[in-house]
Amino acid sequence: MSGTSSSAPGDFALTADPVLSRNALVRDENLRLDPDYVRDSWPKARVVVVDDAGRTPVDWLVRPGREFRETDAAAWDDAAGRDGRIRTRAGLDLAAAPPAEAVLLGESDGVPYWAMRADTGKTADSDVFAGEQGEWADLRAAGAVLDPLGAGLLTGAVATLNWHDRARFCAVDGTPTRPHNAGWARICGNGHEEYPRTDPAIICLVHDGADRVLLARQPVWPEGRYSVLAGFVESGESLEACVHREIGEEVGIAVSDVRYLGSQAWPFPRSLMLGFHAIGDPEVPLRPAEGEIADALWITRAQLRAALARGDWGSGPDPADAADPVAGPVVMLPGRVSIARTMLESWAAAGG
After folding, report:
1. CB of 221 closer than 8 Å to CB of 296
2. Which residue of 36, 40, 113, 226 could cross-link 105, Cys pair, CB 3.0 to 4.6 Å?
């Protein structure tokens, strides 16, 4: 069922780490369990404050947005990984001791980092960041331009805080729970502990082993926006079995030579995207799943490169592109914050 082999056609590897897998933060469970460390870390802590929409104050030199086109590629390259920084606050500016709902994320260069929710309704104009400049942004908007520390901090903060929001009652007896172990567990009055959940999902780049790649579009996406196929892992299912099942369900073809590429967190609200590639046959008719896939198509490597060159966030249909036989269908592709973008760029770079 795994379909792996040592001589799979068209084999390739990721050319870069997925954006949200970058992390300069040291996690240590022993620190979370040490009450002295938890107490003493707060006076020197920096805190990531996240609002109910998953946003935190961000400083950047290049602001992400759909207005960016190919001419901005150099600016994006200059910004990505260096010039996007989240704004943290000193722990003592927010509270005299770690609030019950705060989460100890870890350390970097000896600095403890925590995360906590902003009070409901607080924004950049509120007293949380009074007098400071900056714009509140979420991971989808800012993830691609955050430095590795900021990417790790915000990804971890959003994932754990989302879990806390949804785990306020015990799954065993239904009684209320409270935070435990510096935010890395919740415990009810009867002593039942629960830990942050992560929902695994596969995301698979299907290609023909040569020069064509399969893209698909969800019904809720704008016309022309495409990506690779993905789906959640079911209970009792292996990752490889999930790849076979999801591809078959979504576009009606069988795949072989399933190979792992890499992973990244996708905390919307708490997923882990596990990237694979697999071989499919372009001669088999595609049967998009009604209600799940609006359209699916095969494009060449040259056509994918043309789509990638339109910019990190994609551009609208351009008549000049549509008339170009090399460019082929005008498609918009995911931004760099998604592992799908890394997978597509890596496959495009692997060919001659």
Report:
1. no
2. 113
